[in-house]
Amino acid sequence: MIEKLILNELLQASKKYGSSFASAHEGESVIREEIKEAKEEYNHLKLEFNDVWAAVRGRDTEKQLAGVVKVRARAKNAIEELIQVCAMCDKFTMSFGNTAPAEVQGENDIERKIAEFLLREIISFMNDTCVLCGDYVPEGRIVCPSCEKDPFHGLKKKGGAV
After folding, report:
1. Which residues pair with 129 in a beta bridge?
2. What would the pLDDT profile of 11-24 be if each residue is shown by its tens digit?
3. What phi and psi values does residue 19 have, to the nearest 5 degrees?
4. What does residue 152 show for φ and ψ, rounded to 5 degrees?
5. C-beta of residue 89 within 8 angstroms of C-beta of residue 114
6. DSSP 151
7. Residue 74: its pLDDT value, please?
8. What is the phi-psi region of residue 139: left when phi exceeds 0, alpha when psi lies from -120 to 50, beta otherwise?
9. What span, in angstroms and rounded, lies between the C-alpha atoms of 73 and 19?
10. Do 44 and 74 touch, CB atoms closer than 8 A?
11. CA-only gyration radius of the chain, Å
12. Which of 96, 130, 143, 154 has its CA 20 to 30 A from that of 108?
């Protein structure tokens, strides 16, 4: 089922943007952008889930239910972005590896490779990192102590002007 979604995404993207990348650099950039978008959706999902947790602690059933609806929507968006990552990986492989998309190659082998890739990405998304600066945060938190004390910490760390 997932492979069909990926293949449909690949076909739609190919119609809209062409069936191959002009260069490996372009392909890498597109894949990187899709991963970034998936990570952003996941970060939003974590924020929404923190609201659910606050509502559970506050025993606010209405906010709990509304929050879970938002979490589901964010999870769906993240899945859609990850499908785009897979489709662009297939497009890259087709552009430079002289191979066909996953469905033609044999689903078990390509599914394993995609699953390994997605697992690595999801694990990196799920690390307890600050949404502002990327530093480690204790489990269940989204902002590190440094950013709590200094809201500009993330900008300073990334070399931005404050």
Report:
1. 136
2. 999 899 998 999 98
3. -90, -5
4. -95, 0
5. yes
6. T
7. 92
8. beta
9. 30
10. yes
11. 19
12. 96
The Cα-based distances of 116 to 76, 93, 120, 122 in angstroms read 20, 16, 6, 10
Prediction pTM value: 0.61
Q: Which run of H or E residues covers position 101?
A: none
Predicted local confidence at residue 156, as pLDDT:
75
Query: Residue 47's CB: how many other CB atoms inside 10 A?
Result: 14
Phi-psi region at 63: left, alpha or beta (left = phi > 0; alpha = psi -120 to 50): alpha
CA distance 49 to 71: 6
Distance CA 67, CA 75 (A): 12
Single-letter code of the amino acid located at 131: V
Q: Distance of alpha carbon 142 from its chain centroid, rounded?
A: 16
